[in-house]
């Protein structure tokens, strides 16, 4: 029996060819293809929001936090449930992470709890579209507007997705995408930051390259360095992969959407399982997590917890006692396999194993 893995990287053939072509050009570090990838991202994903390509989503998040003006002593209301790199760059800025609870029936941030956690020290709101289920952006934006706060979206799981007919990446002040190895669109490692205010783009590009403005002139340092920057740029090898994969994104997404709807169709009537969804991760809630996992393992099917409540990590200051929904579901969530090499039959089989496990 072939093992069904939780993840499996998908690199389209066109992306492999693009990498080989790039390796034979004078630019393999940041060069013309990075600029082309940004243009294509704006055309297909972020529209009037400007795109800045970087080496990872974590870098994109850090740049967004700097551009949002987050500094030492500030508070940032952020998701308790996410991959920790949503929240760690808040600590780079020496600000405090204030965890907002998940919603009762999902792993996404609860807008009502965001509103409760805002204080006079709050500098920004951060959200993550967990597993590819869009957050309640209109409610979140309304809260942000009321308090004059920027919204930063961690869209690591949400490349190509839409919220109420608007593309994620074209909605709030900053959106950060991940092209890490197993993401829906991968460049092995890479990320994209999209920015609403065009006046911030020059600074973002300087921050990604040591604080200097890259130029083709003789004196590449002519404009000097007035702010400490980082080495956060994307390579042309990654950009070449990204351009090719972005051209195929509709096809890739369609495949993931088919898997998600097959999960939904086959899981919703299993008593003891609540289907949460997700285009990128299939998230379920169940009281019988161990029983299900045991059965899946017996059938060579991987499942996993993938992420965890971030107050588990002492760097954030210890466990909080004001996220009751997280307390209720922390032992109930489970992630099922989703990737390009699975088909409908695999998903039906996975659901059948779960159904039998709960009989
Ligand atoms: C929700 C979330 N945010 C951020 C990241 C960080 O992405 P990267 O590895 O591109 O820095 C990940 C990575 O898996 C993630 O899952």
TrEMBL record:
UniProt keywords (A-Z) are: Pyridoxal phosphate
Q: For this entry, list what GO says about its biological process.
A: polysaccharide biosynthetic process
- On whether Protein transport is a keyword of this UniProt record, the answer is no
Q: Which residues form the active site?
A: 183
Q: Which GO terms describe its molecular function?
A: pyridoxal phosphate binding; transaminase activity
Q: Which SUPFAM superfamilies match?
A: PLP-dependent transferases
Q: Which residues carry this modification: N6-(pyridoxal phosphate)lysine?
A: 183
Q: Give the family per the record.
A: Belongs to the DegT/DnrJ/EryC1 family.
Q: This protein is called what?
A: DegT/DnrJ/EryC1/StrS aminotransferase
- Organism equals Candidatus Woesebacteria bacterium RIFCSPLOWO2_01_FULL_39_10
């Amino acid at each position: 029996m072939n093992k069904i893995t939780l993840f499996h990287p998908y690199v389209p053939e066109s992306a492999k060819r693009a990498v080989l072509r790039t390796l034979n050009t004078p630019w393999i570090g940041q060069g013309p293809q990075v600029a082309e990838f940004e243009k294509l991202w704006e055309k297909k994903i972020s529209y009037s929001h400007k795109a800045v390509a970087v080496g990872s989503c974590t870098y994109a998040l850090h740049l967004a936090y700097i551009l949002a003006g987050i500094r030492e002593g500030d508070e940032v209301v952020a998701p308790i449930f996410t991959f920790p790199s949503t929240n760690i760059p808040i600590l780079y800025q020496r600000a405090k992470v204030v965890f907002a609870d998940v919603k009762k029936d999902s792993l996404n941030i609860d807008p009502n709890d965001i509103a409760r956690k805002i204080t006079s020290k709050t500098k920004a709101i951060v959200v993550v579209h967990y597993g590819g289920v869009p957050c309640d952006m209109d409610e979140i934006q309304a809260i942000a507007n009321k308090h004059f706060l920027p919204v930063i979206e961690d869209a690591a799981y949400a490349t190509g997705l839409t919220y109420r007919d608007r593309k994620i990446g074209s909605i709030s002040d900053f959106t950060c995408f991940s092209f890490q190895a197993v993401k829906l669109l991968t460049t092995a490692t890479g990320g994209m930051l999209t920015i609403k205010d065009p006046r911030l783009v020059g600074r973002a590009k300087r921050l990604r390259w040591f604080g200097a403005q890259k130029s083709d002139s003789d004196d590449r340092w002519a404009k000097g360095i007035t702010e400490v920057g980082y080495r956060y740029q994307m390579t042309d090898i990654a950009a070449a992969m990204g351009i090719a994969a972005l051209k195929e994104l509709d096809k890739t997404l369609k495949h993931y959407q088919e898997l998600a709807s097959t999960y939904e169709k086959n899981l919703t009537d299993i008593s003891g399982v609540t289907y949460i969804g997700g285009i990128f991760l299939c998230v379920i809630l169940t009281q019988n997590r161990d029983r299900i996992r045991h059965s899946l393992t017996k059938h060579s099917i991987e499942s996993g917890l993938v992420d965890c409540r971030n107050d588990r990590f002492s760097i954030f200051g210890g466990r909080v006692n004001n996220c009751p929904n997280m307390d209720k579901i922390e032992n109930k969530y489970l992630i099922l396999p989703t990737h390009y090499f699975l088909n409908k039959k695999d998903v039906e089989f996975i659901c059948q194993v779960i159904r039998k496990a709960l009989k």
